[in-house]
Amino acid sequence: MSISPPPLVISIQSQVAFGHVGNSAAAFPMRACGVEVVEAPTTLLSNHPHYATVRGQVLDAALVEDILTGLRERGLHQRAAVILSGFLGRADTARAVAAFVASAKQANPNVVYACDPVMGDADLGYFVDEDLRDAFARELAPLADILLPNTFELATLSGAPVTCAADVRRARAALGRPAVVATSVPVPGRPGFLATVTATETSCSAIEVAHLPVRPAGTGDLLAGLTVARLALGLDLEAAVARAVAGVAAALERTSGAPWAEMPITSALDAILAAGDGDAR
């Protein structure tokens, strides 16, 4: 009796030896959801850069491109249900990812490209250079089936401020992408809440959560990973986002209030995966 392989997600983003950002936040929970994950690193760092020291480096674009070439040689671009990209570090790396995604879409028209345009945040400003921001806007965003920015990044891409759910809907239309899932969206009249807003060509929905007094790195990476894993498993986008938001909330509820404390992904994994299960459809 033949057994169908699980859906495949190719995840192109940062990797750290210690802590939970990039693939080091997303890959383990994605696998636990039941998908196969192929990790293509764009950095090899000791830890995320909010510690007093960080060792390692952003990988050369040529090395990342060579890894992606190897994935093509294995035919993985033809098998993938979803390609997810996150922190890339260099404009040339973004161009290599764009070429990989374009070749995947040509070989596999059903593949979904989910782009998390990691560029900065409202409280940090930009942490990538202008060339990379331009590459996100000109080369990666136009390929994306789903964009997964925070409000700071969405405002950068769309050229307009994002202060409510309606702004996300307008930004999606301006960018011309099928779907935008925006995080950290203010909720007018509810200063203690933030929303994750899903805007498509036909709908716009918001999930509001209370703002917790914690600030770990990697929450967007975890949310993106949980979202694409559930998409690969067949959930529709709104249901996948709802499960992901609930999963991130479960991790944050268990995170220390110390500055830049790590999310306890391993110990909280059961809660992360179970969160929002009754809302799936």
UniProtKB/TrEMBL annotation:
CDD domains in UniProt: pyridoxal_pyridoxamine_kinase
Kinase is among the record's keywords: yes
GO BP field: pyridoxal 5'-phosphate salvage
Keywords attached to this entry: ATP-binding, Kinase, Nucleotide-binding, Transferase
Molecular function as annotated in GO: ATP binding; pyridoxal kinase activity
GO CC annotation terms, alphabetical: cytosol
Classification via SUPFAM superfamilies: Ribokinase-like
EC number(s) per entry: 2.7.1.35
Pyridoxamine kinase/Phosphomethylpyrimidine kinase domain span: 82-255
Domain of life: Bacteria
Annotated NCBIfam families: pyridox_kin
Protein name: pyridoxal kinase
Source species: Pikeienuella piscinae
